[in-house]
């Protein structure tokens, strides 16, 4: 017959000891998996480095352009080729870009594996000077940037006409004419201003009235008086050849031939 006390002692579970061999096997497995993972990470890094070194150029990102189209800037920079990105030299691209008359400065960066980033600073056009059948784009200082091309995207420019190339190369005169243009354009909108000589320019207003000025010597009160008398002068536009305004206290009216005053 079994004693109850002995039975309770027999019911307690026996603790099993984890063998040292089992722990060693787990450690070996963890080390093996770490080695395999490290190998794949190293292989992926090496492949990425290899791909970056030999990957061809796929994208050209252009920033800062206003007048020049992006396709033209890209062609200037890459010469139309698609080579390994590593083969493009930033200094060569820089000199190719600034050889264009519109580009004042440029910054070039490579973004691996396949992108070229270009930021340009363009010259700012102020006026178009028309000499015969050619339009020359100039900046605010009267310096020629380039001749007009159809692909250029230009803002609204001051229009200047001249029959003499000597006036085109006279920066001081061009600057003075641009300043005068802006003053007169505030009175009424101008179509273009014609340089006849250093001391005589003719502003052709869109309404049909022609106003003669000397851009180097025209008192401010002459511009004010023109604004005050504009309606009267405009009513005579079909009879007048031009109105000279650069005097202290008068206008000089030049009548068309055959017109009765």
UniProtKB/TrEMBL annotation:
Keywords: Cell cycle, Cell division, Cell membrane, Membrane, Transmembrane, Transmembrane helix. InterPro entries: FtsQ, POTRA_FtsQ_type. It comes from Hippea maritima (strain ATCC 700847 / DSM 10411 / MH2). One of its GO terms (biological process) is cell septum assembly. The chain crosses the membrane at residues 22-47. It comes from the Bacteria. This is Polypeptide-transport-associated domain protein FtsQ-type. The keyword Cell division applies. Signal peptide: none annotated. The keyword Manganese does not apply. Residues 56-122 form the POTRA domain. Gene3D superfamilies: membrane protein fhac (3.10.20.310). The lineage of its organism: Bacteria, Pseudomonadati, Campylobacterota, Desulfurellia, Desulfurellales.
């Amino acid at each position: 017959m079994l004693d109850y006390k002995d039975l309770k002692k027999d019911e307690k579970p026996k603790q099993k000891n984890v063998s040292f061999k089992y722990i060693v096997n787990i450690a070996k497995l963890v080390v093996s998996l770490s080695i395999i993972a490290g190998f794949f990470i190293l292989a992926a890094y090496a492949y990425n480095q290899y791909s970056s070194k030999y990957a061809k150029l796929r994208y050209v990102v252009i920033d800062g352009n206003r007048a020049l189209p992006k396709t033209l800037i890209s062609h200037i920079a890459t010469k139309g080729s698609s080579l390994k990105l590593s083969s493009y030299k930033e200094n060569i691209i820089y000199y190719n870009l600034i050889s264009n008359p519109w580009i004042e400065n440029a910054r070039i960066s490579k973004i691996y594996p396949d992108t070229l980033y270009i930021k340009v600073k363009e010259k700012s056009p102020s006026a178009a000077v028309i000499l015969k059948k050619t339009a020359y784009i100039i900046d605010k200082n009267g310096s020629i940037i380039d001749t007009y091309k159809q692909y250029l995207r230009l803002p609204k420019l001051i229009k200047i006409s001249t029959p003499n190339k000597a006036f085109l190369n006279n920066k001081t005169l061009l600057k003075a004419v641009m300043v005068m243009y802006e003053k007169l354009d505030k009175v009424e909108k101008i179509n273009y201003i014609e340089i006849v000589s250093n001391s005589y320019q003719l502003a052709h207003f869109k309404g049909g009235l022609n106003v003669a000025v000397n851009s180097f010597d025209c008192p401010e009160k002459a511009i004010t008086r023109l604004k005050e008398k504009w309606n009267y002068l405009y009513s005579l536009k079909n009879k007048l050849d031009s109105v000279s305004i650069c005097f202290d206290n008068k206008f000089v009216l030049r009548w068309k031939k055959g017109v009765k005053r």
